[in-house]
Write a structure and sequence with these properties.
About 0% of the residues lie in helices and about 45% in strands. The protein is mainly β. A hairpin with a 3-residue loop joins strand 2 and strand 3.
């Protein structure tokens, strides 16, 4: 499994309203609705397509996470009441170590956290956090220098401005922002009836 090291973008893509662009010849991004982009690609023979995590994102069973030189995979809990698990993967993608998500969160870093991976010089001191909530499992970057990345699913809708990694190339994809609706004059003023007491 490859390591995503760079955080600067190779290219900045600005989409017109409803416009689209092809990234690395195989990934289509479209300005789907104001302030959002849609990412589409074929799953067979597709390149690795990753999202740089800048705000908490929901994780699903089987999702891959890249942080520093590490790859992790989430295994959601089954119907038997077992907690969700996070697998640290070896270079072949097989689980080396498994961490149960028993509590509300699990943090990973090079110097501190619930899981310390001191041998990985690409991890920040405190790199990421997996949040275990009743409504789902979420991934949060903790201000790492090399970023925390997760796989993008075909058809996924992302906020405009997202940084997308396609194999070893990074794209910042911008789209028209959501329209700001200015209130009309009628909405800003209310008629006031003043009555004086006699």
């Amino acid at each position: 499994m490859e390591t995503l090291k760079r955080v600067r973008t190779d290219e900045r893509i600005i989409l017109a309203d409803g416009g689209s662009a092809l990234l690395s010849g195989s990934v289509m991004v479209t300005a789907s609705e104001p302030g959002f982009i849609r990412v589409d690609f074929e799953t067979s023979g597709a390149p690795t397509v990753m999202l740089r995590v800048t705000e908490p994102v929901e994780l699903y069973d089987g999702d891959l996470i890249a942080a520093g030189g590490q790859w992790l995979r989430l295994e959601c809990s089954g119907h038997d009441g077992e907690p969700a698990r996070l697998h640290l993967l070896d270079p072949r993608g097989e689980p080396m170590v498994t961490f149960n998500l028993n509590g509300p969160s699990l943090s990973i870093g090079r110097r501190c956290g619930d899981v310390v991976l001191s041998h990985d010089g690409l991890l920040s001191g405190l790199h990421l956090q997996v949040l275990n909530r009743p409504e789902g499992t979420f991934l949060r970057d903790l201000g790492s220098s090399n970023g925390t990345w997760t796989m993008i699913r075909p058809g996924e809708i992302l906020p405009a401005g997202s940084v997308i990694g396609v194999d070893e190339r990074l794209y910042a994809v911008l789209a028209p922002p959501a329209a700001v609706v200015e209130p009309s004059e009628d909405d800003r003023t209310w008629p006031i009836d003043l009555h004086t007491a006699a």
